[in-house]
Design a protein that fits this description.
The protein is α/β, with parallel strands linked by helices and about 350 residues long. Helix content is about 35%, strand content about 15%. It is built from eleven helices and 14 strands. A seven-stranded mixed beta sheet has the order 2-10-9-6-5-3-4, with helices on both faces. It has a five-stranded mixed beta sheet with strand order 1-13-14-12-11, with helices on one face. Helix 3 packs across helix 4. It is globular and about 60 Å long. The two termini are about 30 Å apart. About 45% of the residues are buried.
Length: about 350
């Protein structure tokens, strides 16, 4: 089956539609973040200097500054990882964000897919990854399924001679068993061979247009990736955002957001449980859920006619046309959306 790996949620959004297709928070930017970004605009005549931002990110994750590489968003990180070496056996664990596989294929590499199964709750089993894989990508929590894999299971994938890339773009607002604080994150682990953790500031802080993310990993490996990166790859405003988002103020705010997202997600799940013929993928832990229902593609199009944008699932390897991804929003939006979804389903039955 052929998948459109270049399709992303922003393609679903249009004028007049309520956006449940893109996993970016819609709340206003807090002053502690907007102020330094605005102030940085007075410094644009100078080339960007990333040293302060690197130091801030390193402090946040208790890493050496040599173990931090700033990038123009996660997408640039995937391209760097695809170009810094020629893997003998690249593996992407699906379903997950399609950009890692797209970057590998665009760089001329063959890619094997490990497909997690719906009947297993899309949970990772490290034994499924071939032993000879020397470059492995896995998401945690995984986009689109919102499943949060145990850190211990992901750690089983690390070994000498392998680069293990863990996409933690949504990790900062995960929440499990009533406890926020990035459960199952490997961001501070410097003892696992070849481990590279990818983080993004796009999702939680609504900075998709600013393009800022970073990699955490072995110093020698990141130095090789840095050699592939363009000069001044991260803009001055993006660096200001990185510094602000690594602060104690930002971390405390993330914990509050994680608790709020968990409550709003639980509300969405309770409402979806009443929708006929609908199944939720796995045990969602992020700011989105993926659902399976008959004729999902036709339902998606009818929802658009009623003003709602949701993410189609047929572009994700391991899913298909009967799947949709829905972003978690506030309870009022959720209630209105589920009412519209229920109406569409009942009218089609």
């Amino acid at each position: 089956m052929t998948f459109d790996l270049g399709h992303h949620g922003d393609a679903e959004v249009g004028a007049g539609l309520i956006d449940l297709a893109v996993n970016v928070r819609h709340e206003p930017m807090p002053a502690w973040l907007s102020a330094p970004i605005l102030e940085s605009l007075s410094q644009l005549r100078a080339y960007p200097d990333d040293r302060e931002a690197v130091a801030a990110v390193a402090r946040r994750h208790r890493r050496s500054e040599k173990e931090v590489l700033l990038t123009a968003g996660a997408a640039q990180a995937f391209v760097l990882l695809a170009h810094f070496k020629k893997p003998e056996h690249a593996v992407v664990v699906h379903p997950q964000f399609t950009e890692p596989e797209a970057a590998l294929r665009n760089a001329g590499h063959d890619v094997d897919r490990v497909l997690l199964r719906a009947e297993d709750g899309f949970r990772l089993d490290a034994r499924l990854v071939p032993e000879d894989a020397d470059l492995v990508f896995v998401g945690n929590p995984t986009n689109p399924t919102s499943v949060l894999h145990p850190a211990s299971e992901i750690a089983e994938l690390a070994r000498p001679g392998r680069v293990l890339v863990v996409d933690e773009a949504f990790a900062d607002t995960t929440f499990r068993d009533g406890v926020p604080g990035e459960p199952e994150s490997l961001a501070e682990r410097d003892d696992l061979p070849g481990l590279v953790v990818l983080r993004s500031l796009t999702k939680t802080w609504g900075l998709a247009g600013l393009r800022i993310g970073y990699l955490l990993g072995p110093a020698r490996l990141l130095a090789r990736l840095a050699a592939c990166r363009p000069l001044w790859a991260v803009s001055t405003p993006a660096l200001a955002a990185a510094i602000a988002c690594a602060s104690p103020t930002a971390i405390a705010a993330e914990r509050e957001i994680a608790a709020r997202v968990a409550a709003e997600r639980d509300h969405l799940l309770r409402r979806l449980a009443r929708v006929p013929n609908l199944t939720v993928a796995g045990s969602p832990a992020g700011a989105f859920v993926t659902v399976r229902l008959p004729e999902a593609e036709k339902i998606r199009l009818e929802l658009r006619e009623r003003g709602w944008a949701v993410r189609r699932g047929d572009t994700f390897p391991g899913l298909g046309p009967d799947w949709l991804r829905i972003a978690v929003r506030d309870t009022a939006i959720t209630d209105a959306f589920v009412a519209a979804l229920t109406d569409v389903i009942e009218e089609r039955s």
